[in-house]
Write a structure and sequence with these properties.
heterotrimer, A alpha/beta, B alpha+beta, C alpha/beta, B: Heat Shock Protein 90, C: alpha/beta, Udp-n-acetylmuramoylalanyl-d-glutamate--2,6- Diaminopimelate Ligase, Chain: A, domain 1, six-stranded mixed sheet, 5 helices, globular, disordered C terminus
């Protein structure tokens, strides 16, 4: 069974890429959707794609510590400037979708499970 | 047609939302359109949460007349030093406690403005903040 | 799908609303931040959240949410349960993380609300 990589998710959902262009071949093992940082720190896994609407720079620290495949910001949210700077310097992919968290999650879940 | 005043206690998250709940019930009894009730409930709730989150105490005044509903939210509290900054989506000064509740994303004032037909805000640092929101109940043909 | 089918799909526990399991649901909104629910959710939707406090129910009431699903194995606070009963809003809890909850519901045809802020 082929694993899904970030690039195929980007294509399938038509995501905009804001950072981490060199790391799009990362394998996506699963997903985590949530906006409460302590919860994401406690419960998400390495290799997860993290789906959130939080845009402040702490999201980069969390994604980095948890070794997420990347971060998808939903509902068209754009990262704050210092968030983007940090993500670029750490090579963490930040991707944007205009869809809601429910829709993005549903579609990615569908890709990963099938 | 209707005028009422409701007290809001600062810091009391247990009771937060009771005022907007009561106001929603009052409007339902008046058989106002569902979308109007929804807008009023939303701006009232966001205002109430702001008072609870940031002020010492406050009051929400509801005034229903033919054609429109006015809501005023008046509080005694720290006030807002930079209103333009506070109105920016995502700007927040919320405490950890407020964030734990699921608030403090910095969208409150934007949401209130989006859902009101008329929105006015004024504030004085060290004294408090005043919001006035008007929601029309009848579409004005001159609007378009 | 209806709440009974959702309960089965999510291996959920019904905390409030045993008598409303035949309620049909077509759309869902998922968020941890109540401000987002206020900004974007549509009336009649399911609300899926990781929060379990009373404000979830206040927000649900303001937005005419049809039922609340609390994920991540969170149990609603006693105040939340009481408020849910007073407001007559069904509350289900599931051990699944939100990614799994939305995933399963999505595969069964539940759609997301994508309404934008402001109704003008």
């Amino acid at each position: 069974m082929d694993n899904v990589d970030l690039e195929s998710i980007i294509k399938a959902l038509n995501l905009k890429i804001r950072s981490g262009e060199d790391n799009l071949k990362a394998e996506v093992g699963g997903g985590y959707t949530g906006d409460l940082l302590s919860d994401v720190m406690g419960n998400s896994k390495e290799g997860d794609i993290w789906i959130t609407r939080q845009v402040h720079q702490n999201i980069v620290a969390v994604a980095s510590l948890k070794e997420h495949a990347g971060i998808i910001l939903v509902q068209g949210c754009e990262p704050a400037k210092d968030t983007l700077d940090k993500a670029k310097s750490e090579g963490i992919p930040i991707l944007i979708s205009d869809l809601s968290a429910f829709e993005v999650t549903g579609r990615i879940y569908n890709l990963i499970k099938n | 047609m209707y005028e009422g005043c409701f007290i809001v206690a600062g810091g009391n998250f247990d009771k937060a939302g009771e005022v907007s709940g009561s106001i929603k019930t009052i409007l339902k009894q008046m058989r106002l359109p569902v979308d109007v009730i929804r807008k009023v409930a939303l701006v009232t709730y966001e205002s109430e949460i702001n008072i609870v989150s940031y002020a010492r105490k406050g009051m929400i005044r509801l005034h229903v007349v033919t054609g429109s509903i006015m809501i005023e939210a008046i509080d005694e509290g720290p006030g807002i030093p930079d209103i333009e900054l506070a109105m920016q989506p995502g700007y927040s000064t919320a405490s950890p406690r407020v964030r734990e509740m699921g608030f403090g994303a910095g969208m409150g004032l934007c949401n209130i403005r989006s859902f009101s037909d008329t929105f006015k805000i004024s504030s004085e640092v060290g004294r408090g903040t005043y919001l006035k929101m008007i929601i029309k109940t009848i579409a004005d043909p001159l609007d378009n | 799908m209806n709440l009974y089918e959702i309960k089965e799909l999510l291996e959920a526990e019904v905390i409030v609303g045993e008598d409303k399991l035949d309620m049909e649901v077509k759309t869902a909104f998922m968020a941890d931040l109540m401000s987002d629910v206020l900004a974007f959710a549509t009336a009649g939707s399911l609300l899926i959240t990781g929060l379990a406090n009373a404000q979830v129910l206040r927000t649900a009431d303001v937005m005419d949410i049809s039922a609340v699903i609390m994920g991540r194995g969170k149990m609603p606070s006693p105040e939340a349960v009481q408020l849910a009963r007073e407001l007559n809003i069904p509350v289900l809890t599931t051990k699944f993380i939100l990614f799994e909850v939305a995933g399963r519901l999505y595969l069964k045809g539940v759609k997301g609300c994508i309404e934008k802020v402001g109704s003008k």
